[in-house]
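Appendix B, example 12.
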Amino acid sequence: MTTVTETRTMFGAVIHAPGDVRYEQRPRPVLLEPTDAILEVTAACVCGSDLWRYRGISKVDGPTPIGHELCGVVTEVGSAVTTIKVGDFVVGGFNPSDGTCPLCLKGATANCRHGSHYDGAQADVVRIPMADGTLVATPAAPPADLIPSLLALSDVMCTGWHAAVSAGVGPGSSVAVVGDGAVGLCAILAARELGATTIIAMSRHEARQRVAREFGATHIVEERDEAGSERIREVTDGIGADCVLECVGTESARLQSVGSVRDGGNIGIVGVPHGDLPVDQLFWRNVGLKGGPANCRAYLPHLMDLVWQRKINPGLVFDLELPLSEIAEAYAAMDERRAIKTLVRP
């Protein structure tokens, strides 16, 4: 194994209970398998899905390291790692995968048969399981201004892309995006890159509307429920959007998506599910439904190339940056919608 000097401890975010995330000293991770790598984190962030636990909607079973988005520099690699080396700057998708199982070979890396997770990525140092199948290295050490966009590739940009791909967005599509958080905004950017010509952002917040327009939104709809669906029909020949991208996960967001898609259209659903869908209605209207966790490792090379060439700038979703030591405020700002997405640096 290739190694560098180790220290025995580090600091990271630990969630203890709803509303209680702390910056605590933790054991420094070590290589456990020959396929592992150790990453010194350059930047991490708080995800909207982390807020499910923070808000008490999902259960917290005692003190738990938290976070799943990261980029940084490799400091150690296991003996079986072949594509990543010490010193590489890398991005890791939020859902580690081996890259070799039958599902990974078909591009379904989110459903890797040996899939794993990080032991808290909001930390100084993180162990990366299955490094070859999880990490993608940048062509060179990135300039500082690209770090936020590279970090966005670890989840929200890949997830927004997955919503658009799942819904079949293509040249000339009309698209409605339900959700104006970081994933929804990245879904707008994905729809633009995939050739959509009508892109409707459902947003009531001026700061988020500005990012939506910069990412390619052609229309803003502030109304909700049936009034929102009616506004979408007004700009889509009276029938609804070809593709609706559901980027929230609540039952109301799912019902908004069903009401906003045209008959024969598709819904790309990537919001962590907390509600049901009217399946009978989808059937009779010939509406397609596809989505789930993003296949980050499958999307990363293409999206990294777009960022590296400065064709997309998903890092604009980060409107607050804090030191990792202020992780409690990073969560509170997102919970209170004072920030779209918070970037933290160790």
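The first strand starts at residue 9 and ends at 17. The longest helix spans residues 296-308.
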